[in-house]
Amino acid sequence: MILCHMLLKYINHSGFVIKGEGFALLFDYYKDTPDRYVHEHFLQFPGQLYILASHAHPDHFNPEVLEWHAQREDLRYIFSRDIRRKMRHSPVEAIFLRKGEDWEDPILKIKAFGSTDAGVSFLVETGGMRIFHAGDLNCWHWDEESSPGEIRQAEHAWQQELDAIVREVPALDLALFPIDPRLGKNYMRGAQEFVDKIKVRHFAPMHSWEQYDKANAFRPYVEGRGGKFIPIHQPGEITEII
Q: Which of 31, 44, 54, 194 gives a 20 to 30 Å CA spacing to 18?
C-alpha cells in the first residue's frame, strides 16, 4: 500500500494536529498555540475533522472542544470512556472507547490500548499509516522518590501494557510518546523500551512540560534504532510525514 503524505503540527503539551488528504485529527487538546492555529486554521479545514482525547485530565482534555460543535456540526469526537462523566450535561455526541475497543469509518480505524495512568492510548490507521498517541501511557515512577515496591508495581503495569501493544503492533509510522523530565534520572526509560520493542519510523516527544531540550535529548536513541526523531522546540512547529 502506498503511504499517504501527512503534516504533523505540534500544538501544546501532548496536543498535535495531523492533517491528511481530506481529513485532520486533533489529539489531546489542552490549549492552543500563540497564533491560535486550532481556532483559526484547524476548525476551518475542509474535509472531516476528528477530536481525540485519551483521558479526562485537564492537560489532555479541555471541555472547550465540545463548544466547537456549534461551529462545525460534522466534528467527530472519539474519547476515552472516563470522559463520559465530563459530558453528562452536554448535547454533543461522542464515541467512547475502553481498552481493547475500536471504531472505524471510511477514512480511519482507531483502536484503544491501555494506559498506566488514566484512560487509554490510541492506535490510528489511515492511508496506509499507523499512528500511535500514547496519552499518559509510560513507565511512571520517580526513582528518587518512589519506594522499591512502588517502582516494581509501576514497572509491572508498564510492561503489561507495552507487551499488549507489541503483540499487535510490531511497527509504527509515527509514535507520539511522553518524555517527561519530572521523572528524574531515568525519565527516558519508557520511551527507550517502547522503541526497543516496536520499530518506529518517526518519533515525536510530548508531555515534557516545555522542557524541550531534555525531551530532544532522546534523539540519538531513536536514530540509533533507524528512526527519524522529530524535535520539538515550541508550539506551532510543523513536520512532514512521508
A: 194
Q: Which residues pair with 80 in a beta bridge?
A: 97
CA separation for the pair 92, 69 (Å, rounded): 7
Q: Is residue 241 assigned to a domain?
A: no
Domain span including residue 111: 6-235
Alpha helix (H) residue ranges in 91-204:
148-168, 189-197
Q: Partners of 109 in the beta sheet?
A: 104, 125
CATH number at residue 224: 3.60.15.10
> Could you give the C-alpha distances from 11 to 19, 126, 132, 133, 234, in angstroms and in order?
13, 21, 17, 14, 9
Whether the CB-CB separation of 183 and 141 falls below 8 Å is answered with yes
- Could you report the per-residue pLDDT of 191-237, keeping only the tens digit for each? 999 999 999 999 999 999 999 999 999 999 999 999 999 999 999 99
Q: How far is CA 100 from the centre of its chain?
A: 17
Number of domains in the chain: 1
Grid coordinates belonging to 168: 499487535
Which residue carries 492533517 as its cell? 19
**Considering the domain boundaries, does residue 240 fall inside one?**
no
DSSP lists the bridge partners of residue 122 as 112, 133
Is residue 209 assigned to a domain? yes
User: Distance between CA 12 and CA 177 in Å, rounded?
Assistant: 13
- In three-state secondary structure terms, 54 is coil
Q: How many whole angstroms separate alpha carbon 44 and alpha carbon 41? A: 5
pLDDT tens-digit series, residues 47-74: 999 999 999 999 999 999 999 999 999 9
- Nearest residue to 86 via CA among 65, 106, 100: 65
